[in-house]
Hints:
The protein has 508 residues and is α+β, with helices and mostly antiparallel strands. The chain has 12 helices and 7 strands. Strand 4 and strand 5 form a beta hairpin. Helix 1 runs antiparallel to helix 2. It is extended, with a radius of gyration of 32 Å.
Amino acid sequence: MTAKAQRRRAFWQILLFSAGLLVLTGISAGSVYLVNKARDDNKWVVHTIEAENQINALLLEIRRAESAARGYLLTQEAVFRIDHERAIAAIMPALDRLTRLTGDNPVQRESIAKLSEAIKTRLGQFGQEMGFIAQGQPEKAAAVVREVASTDATAEIAKIASGMLQEEERLFRQRSENADRSQTFAASMTGIGSGLVVVLALISTWLVRRSARARDEAEARLRDANFNLESIVDERTADLREANDEIQRFAYIVSHDLRSPLVNIMGFTSELEELSGDVFRRIGGLTQVPAGGPPLAPGAPGEIMLEAADKQLSDDVSEALRFIKTSIAKMDRLISAILNLTREGRREFQPVKVDTRELIEAIVSTLAHQAAEAHAEIHLDPLPDIVSDRLALEQIFSNLIDNAIKYLKRGVPGEIRIRGRTKLGYAIFEISDNGRGIDPKDHQRIFDLFRRAGTQDKPGQGIGLAHVRALVRRLGGTMSVSSELDAGSTFTITLPIAWNVNNRNADR
Length: 508
């Protein structure tokens, strides 16, 4: 080989080496930047969730103070006064924390100013009510309650808080999109960089093959490159493992923070149940006072029964509390499942014999209130029993039935039908509705994570159907949709009648 050829080969080698180093440097720098950006985006998502939780906590304390004040006005019992004072003491710290959490948003700062004024006004009204009661002037306290009802200060607080929740929801969607975009850019950069590395490797191979005498040197360089590549793969694998652990920690934190307000709701629901029973017993005693004597004590022999209107109201309250408890229990199960997933990495499905009709009837009972509000009827046809994972099936059918109720057409009585059959060792379930339907061009889009179709007038994050399809696939089945706009939808689930756990858990 001539000196000129050697110099040319050395030039190309140096050029290719420099290009490869530049590509690797760019990929590394870009990856570090995008990982940090994704971490910051996720931190802001958590911040938004904390702000939403704090708004709800503040509203809960205000409602608690109002309920206790009215209970004290009706009964004069110290337990209501103590509960009222505790709620009042918790309102301003909750407002201060909310102010700190939303201080980065000018829109929320304006809302906080309005909310503070409304809360101060309501606290002043509380003070007047409790002052009149303490002075032995319950009629004046009742007059203040009527004045509050006419000014509707509580509704103004709820209106401002609702606007703040809507703003936080908008920020949640925006920040979630930013996090997704950062991850997409990171994947794109890795793909493009890998493609460039491959191109450079091909050119290098072509150049070294031009000389027989350079073959040994090329093989040595190739062995070195392979060793370096394995090191890079190990590093990237470690980075991916760390990123996955970070995502699981994030999911655990979010789920844990969700459980805290759920426990509060559960506790206050039990308190409301006890309080409502006591209030209605006292109402019964107040409405049936014996002639010439004091009201009968609740629980005494010959206990006073509620009149028709009060009895209906008591039954309605009891029914509402039962629905709340049922929903709380369902939400607790779902949060527990999420926490188990984050602790175990990925839950292993356990096949059990499932009475499908009994399972879906339980789901329908938890959604009965939503169905009644939507004027919808849910019909169950005969359904085949299967061997599968019970929790996964509950999540699948709960999501589909809830969506069917949620997306019914306004002004049209809803009709939802669930039917099933078997064919060639598979159970085929169909969930049909006469709702607004789905445009055929969006049939695949609705199964993508964080993607939604149609008019966005219902709350949701776009993860339900994607999660359902993932569960169906892990159970060895398939899922499809048939729908037209304004013509309803039919979701078809095909699952093995006797599912074997080894079919899917081996893919972990």
